[in-house]
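Worked example 4.2. Below are the chains of a multi-component assembly; read each line carefully before continuing.
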Amino acid sequence: MQDEQSLIRRAQQRDQEALTQLYEANFDRIYRYVALKIGDRFEAEDITQQVFINAIESISRFKWQGTSFSAWLYRIAHNQIVDYLRRKTKRPMVPLEKAATKSSSDDPSKTAELNMDIAKVAQATKKLTKAQQEVISLRFASELSIAEAAEVMRKSEGAIKALQHSAILSLRKILAVE
Amino acid sequence: MVKNRKEFTNILDDCLDRILVKGESIEQCLQSYPAFASELGPLLKTALFAHKASAVAPRPEFRERARFQFQAALREMATKKEKRGFFSFSALPRFATVAVSIILALVIVGSGTVAAAGNSLPDSPLYPVKLATETVQLKLAGTPLEKAELYAKLADKRVTELVKMAEKGKPEQVQKVAQRLNGLLMAMAMEAKANGEVAAMMAGEQVPMMQSPEAGAAVAPAVTESASTPTAPPTLAPAPTPKLVPAPMPRPAPGPMPKPVPAPDVTAKKAPAPTKEKAPVAIAPTPPTVTPQLLDPNMLAQMQKRAQLKMMVSEKASVNSDAIRGALKNAPESVKPALYQALMVADSGYQQALQSLEK
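Applying the procedure described above to all two chains together yields the following structure tokens:
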């Protein structure tokens, strides 16, 4: 924690190395979070990039007041997604089944299968409530802990566990139908 | 009942932790909770299925480009910080900016230094004069379309400089010029977009400025929207002068490319649908006709200019991309990474500009 605090303090003083470290540490998981919520590869790329630009522009305003840096970053990502959904363009979608994966398999059929499954998850997630979508994206795409998800969503850990339960239940029903 | 439910959510979470973090199997976890196994099993399978989303990864080329653009934004930020306190055009009120620009233009146009600087390269001591002259030119450009056209022409110059710096084997200069190119292309896209919105308004098209509160509420998840939400701006404001703004990624294969939008059609096809609103009783109803504003010669001229600009940018995109590719073939190895990044910046920037012109 102490290390993270000093890293962020340096970043707030525009230390490029510190900013780069924060970027590298968070880039992939922010992308996954955005990708699952948007369900579109290219839009997710644009939004992810914008999240980090917004972050460096406003990092001086970040304060250690019960909020971790990553929670702050996720909120920027969340706001960016809300903003995108409000202004949604008519650009053709590129669904996640065409997304790159970090699959270790060299078998193209396995990779294709994984991509199809990811697209199914993204489609099914869209049918959940907004809060359920959020918890699924944070917990399963970004792999945040219950405590971290609670911080991002500004809820208690108990509330996140309950939300996670209801989200998985709903997801199961949706996936069973499809 | 409530207690049982709470207990179950805790058990579910414990199992998720054991499976997703510690690598245990579903069966191992179910053995720990036999009383809940029938209910727990299907939920854990669903959660594992959802966890496949964690395999989504940014495309390597996107990751590479995003990193480059992030670094470019950092450098731009550092440069701005250094320049602050000296002189900034943007700090001046608009009338003062124009006045200073005109005076500067009068002072420097025709001077031998400026003429000599016109062909200078980034490694030349005269190069800052060239950039300053361009800034003045941009300040003097009137409409967004004129600005966009000027940005396109300046981008050509940057590409020429890129190629020459590559030939000289100067990767750092190539990188710097690529940043400037990125700024110009993004500024061009923004000016084109600004003009498009004006044109759309002139054509009677709805340009959404604000979303209704209902629509906003519909998309806003429960997590946000308290006063303490981080105050990061939702989007970057369009830059009136060249500003390094990371360009969104290009849209390469295999994803479907956006369909090319034909050049603005100036015929009556663009006419908005006749309104169904009833005319006031006292006035004789008029038959629906083509909206007269469509025939506004100013608007037609604007649209034609926009179509011409789109063609010009499209040609430049192809020519400049080929020029960088050509340089890439012949460049020394030490310059190739910087040139490759420059190529990505150019492709992405031109694509963004063309998309803005299509709107």
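Take a moment to check your reading of the output against the notes. Residues 2-55 of chain B form one domain. Residues 85-90, 201-293 of chain B have pLDDT under 50 and may be disordered.
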